[in-house]
Amino acid sequence: MMTLKKTFVSNLVFSFGTQVVSIVVSLIMTLGIPKILNIQDFGFWQLFIFYSGFIGFFQLGLSDGMYLKYGGKQFELINKVIIKSEILYFLFFQIGMSLIIVIYLLFAELTYPRMYVLLAFSIYSIIGNLITWLGFLLLATNNIKRYSKSVLIEKLIFVILLLLIFLNNNFSLYSIIVIFIISKVFNLVYLMYLYESYSKIKVLSFKKTLRFIKSDISAGSVLMMSNIASTLILGIGRFTIDNKWGIEVFGKVSLALSATYFFLLLLNQISFSLFPMLRMIKLSSQQIILKSGSYLMSNLLMAIFVFYYPTVFFLKLWIPQYQESLDYLMVLMPICLFEGKMQMINTTYFKTLKKQNALFFINISVLALSIILTLISAYFFESIHAILFSMLICLTVRYIISYLFLIKIFNLKRDLQIVVELLMSTVFILSIWYFEPLISLIIYSSFFLLYIVITKKILIKEFRNLTKLKI
């Protein structure tokens, strides 16, 4: 039997393989689609992707409650009757929510592209939430490989269909959204195949199931609201940009955000593998992973800043019509560091320690700050750059508060790592702001290499702490 550590590494290696495909698809979506679509249609495509990030709101926290309840347990031992009953009854609720959106569209005075986006969103919310329920159960029970296969199928189908519509000269905003939904359907079909043993199980009565639904929603609603608040920290700014400056500017800002998150795709899989493992190990091991893992992740993400320069050089040649997006990318690039560590480490630990209320309080407080700064930036300074700096400030504040909270729980000594992260991010932004790209690259690289040389022994020590950890 594989040890927990070997299982984690095995899941991680397999997941990384899957993420390579995801990166290729994301590369196509980030670079290929804006090359072919006009700026307005690309803006509406990004609007659809943006709205899709809010489908979890319709779950009322059910999937999050199930994720927390079954985290670290064996997939074969979870109660199939309860799971099937909850999902089936809640599916009817999802359909009802989608019908409400459709009814709204019948009376709303919207442009056709915006109406199409909302209609597609209403359809996708049903499919996407089903995928979330089934996928979360696999992730919670450490079935990372099975979940990764479902993602792999989805990405491959999307690329194949995208190539077909391109070859048939049928490339449009509407066709892209259609194949996006179709690829999700293939993902769902595979997941349902994994749950084949559930097909013959009888469903509990609605009255009995409602008790379990309430329990899971009660456990997961705080985490769900926390996730929504987390999404809105950036979302408020994007809503404001769409409302004040229009869909084309929204698309350009969204492209910069897409390029930023592209760097996090490969690393994001760590959080999926980390959560079930953390639920099964002792506190002292959690402490070591937090301290050493956070330090190593910080160094890796600061190194990613260097990729900004070749990325900008290539994008200027590839999609010159999005020159503004490259200016926005300069401000948003440090998000890789602060949001990357927040999602991969901090949030995962809050879930593991069942500190959902604390996470919610942090997210809702930072969301309030985001709203204030966004309104000031948009309607007083009337500056998109000011809005983007507001986003970065809010995500940085959230990361710092949450990390300080965790090291207090684990009784760890405060170090200078946060100061270093802030310093390196400031050097990165200021060097780009005031100097030519090549000089900026030399300045940032020099600072980073000097930091690595000075802290080499600490880096080696923290790496050994992780590799020698017995779990």
From TrEMBL:
Cellular localisation: Cell membrane
UniProt key word Transmembrane: yes
Domain of life: Bacteria
Transmembrane residue ranges: 12-33, 45-67, 87-107, 119-139, 151-167, 173-195, 216-241, 253-275, 296-319, 325-346, 358-381, 387-406, 418-435, 441-460
Keyword Transmembrane helix among UniProt keywords: yes
Membrane topology classification: Multi-pass membrane protein
UniProt xrefs under InterPro entries: Poly_Biosynth_Transport
Keywords assigned: Cell membrane, Membrane, Transmembrane, Transmembrane helix
Name listed for the protein in its UniProt record: Polysaccharide biosynthesis protein
Biological source species: Flavobacterium ardleyense
Taxon lineage: Bacteria, Pseudomonadati, Bacteroidota, Flavobacteriia, Flavobacteriales
